[in-house]
Write a structure and sequence with these properties.
The complex is a heterodimer of chains A (267) and B (202). Chain A is mainly alpha-helical and 267 residues long. Chain A has ten helices and two strands; from the N terminus they run αααβαααααααβ. Chain A folds into two domains: 60 residues, no CATH class; 202 residues, no CATH class. The relative contact order of chain A is 0.12. Helices cover 31% and strands 26% of the residues of chain B. In chain B, strands 6-7-8-3-9-10 form a six-stranded mixed sheet, with helices on both faces. Chain B has a four-stranded antiparallel sheet with strand order 2-1-4-5. In chain B, strand 9 and strand 10 form a beta hairpin. The chains are: A mainly alpha (267), B alpha/beta (202).
Chain lengths: 267, 202
């Protein structure tokens, strides 16, 4: 396999394009020039840092370090899910629901894939484990955040209907059925759309990367199919679980709608 | 005489403590300025808001019943009833019987076709009558009526008053009726309790 190594000059040339874009936005007074430059700088810094961390991890391939890295990734993803909610649970559950369902779905699917499908030795080999987990967390994060956000929004909007149905003696499960369905669907849609468009509209990032790295396209495609299925399963189970648990938390033991458990987010 | 609905020390963060006894067949009117806690009282009894205190129905403690059973027996009907499906009959409790519904429709002066009416096209009078009818299908022992005739004309108001009075007499059920209207208060009669800053004056 042949990889053309990129030199600093190559990257500098690409950076010139971004600078040109920044100059254009400045001239057009779009007001995004500053954030564009900061975002570019962050890209450079964060990716260099993660590159160093991964290099160190690969050099010291021990289960403990891999687990630590995985936990840090999960912690950040859990925070992201919470930050994307317009109305989120107050206290621990604001963070806990997203983190817990991601832990169950993304971690479980990654471990399953590593031990049964990909099968590196040892099974936690960081070269496979970390990128797999990263892709799964990134996608489940989006799915869970979308599902939770939609759920809390619709329950808030439809609170009169929900309480009307509770007052008629319906269970919370019945009273929220359409809202849970809608929320689960919105969590699943991005993944379904991505699978439907894969290869036709867009070339998935991982496959593209492998092809650039010199992997025969058919091999790269096989990996991509595996990843797509894992992502669909992880995102789907994660979003369904998160929506169910969050909805359960919106009602107490006497099935009263407890919107007081939600706080306005910072969006 | 024994209470049908017995309330002792009912409290929420903005209400109470409230003690109250409603006897079988009795209609108790609740009045008070807006924001005094009339709705909060009814919602607390229906167990829709977190609350403390002892609430018993027919000498059975509220916490011994599942929330769904409690709310079927102690029916809260708000000033604006909620509708979520397309047609009227989809909002009826599972297992409703046509013969029983026909009887209620006649009492509320509604035609039988109203079961297939579109929710979008209901007038406010039809909404409130159907909203009450829907609650009656659960055979409640106590009705918690939160200004059920607030936006209605006199004709619809009197239909609802008659239907509730008839139901209480036949089933020996009880009712708490929140009302602002002094004329309605005279028509309904019975005990009138005023609520001030979350507390009941008798």
């Amino acid at each position: 396999m042949t990889v053309i190594s990129l030199s600093a000059l190559d990257l500098a040339l690409a950076a010139l394009l971004v600078l040109a874009l920044a100059a254009l936005t400045l001239w057009a007074r779009l007001g995004v020039g500053r954030s564009l430059l900061i975002a570019s700088a962050r890209t450079v810094l964060q990716l260099l840092l993660v590159g160093l961390v991964l290099q160190a991890l690969f050099d010291h391939a021990q289960l403990g370090w891999v687990a630590l890295m995985a936990l840090v990734m999960l912690a950040v993803a859990g925070y992201e899910v919470m930050a994307r909610q317009e109305r989120r649970f107050a206290g621990f559950w604001g963070y806990g629901i997203g983190a817990a369902t991601m832990f169950v779905s993304a971690f479980a699917v990654t471990v399953l894939a590593l031990t049964t499908m990909v099968g590196p030795t040892p099974w936690w080999e960081p070269q496979y484990a970390i990128p797999l987990l990263g892709m799964l967390l990134g996608n489940t994060m989006t799915g869970i955040a979308l599902g939770l956000d939609r759920l809390t929004q619709t329950v808030w909007r439809e609170r009169r209907v929900i309480e009307g149905r509770l007052a008629l003696g319906e269970s919370w499960v019945n009273a929220t059925a359409t809202m849970r369905r809608e929320a689960s669907r919105s969590g699943l849609m991005p993944t379904i759309n991505a699978m439907a468009a894969a290869g036709v509209v867009s070339l998935p990032g991982m496959m593209t990367g492998q092809i650039l790295a010199g992997v025969p396209p058919v091999e790269a495609v096989k990996y991509q199919i595996l990843i797509m299925f894992l992502i669909a399963a992880g995102t789907g189970f994660g979003a369904l679980g998160a929506v169910w648990f969050a909805c359960r938390r919106l009602f107490d033991h006497r099935s009263r709608l407890r919107l007081d458990r939600l706080r306005a987010g910072r969006r | 005489m024994d209470c049908l609905l017995e309330i002792e020390g009912l409290e929420t963060s903005h209400l109470g403590p409230v003690d109250l006894c409603v006897q079988p067949g009795e209609l108790v009117q609740i009045t008070g300025a807006s924001g005094s806690g009339k709705s909060l009282l009814l919602r607390a009894i229906a167990d829709l808001d977190p609350n403390r205190g002892r609430v018993r129905l027919d000498d059975q403690a509220r916490d011994d019943l599942a929330p769904t059973d409690w709310r079927r027996k102690v029916a809260y009907v708000p000033a604006e009833t909620a509708w979520w499906a397309l047609q009227v009959a989809e909002h009826f409790p599972a297992g409703w019987v046509r013969g029983e519904v026909q009887g209620w429709l006649a009492r509320f002066s509604l035609p039988e076709e109203s079961l297939q009416w579109d929710i979008e096209r209901l007038s406010s009078g039809e909404r409130q009558r159907l909203g009450l009818l829907r609650a009656f299908l659960n055979h409640p022992r106590v009705l918690l009526l939160d200004e059920p005739t607030a936006n209605l004309d006199l004709e619809n108001t009197r239909r609802i008053e008659r239907a509730v009075r008839g139901y209480l007499a036949e089933e020996a059920a009880g009712a708490l009726w929140v009302s602002h209207d002094t004329l309605q208060r005279q028509r309904l009669g019975g005990r009138i309790l005023e609520i001030r800053a979350g507390k009941l004056d008798s």
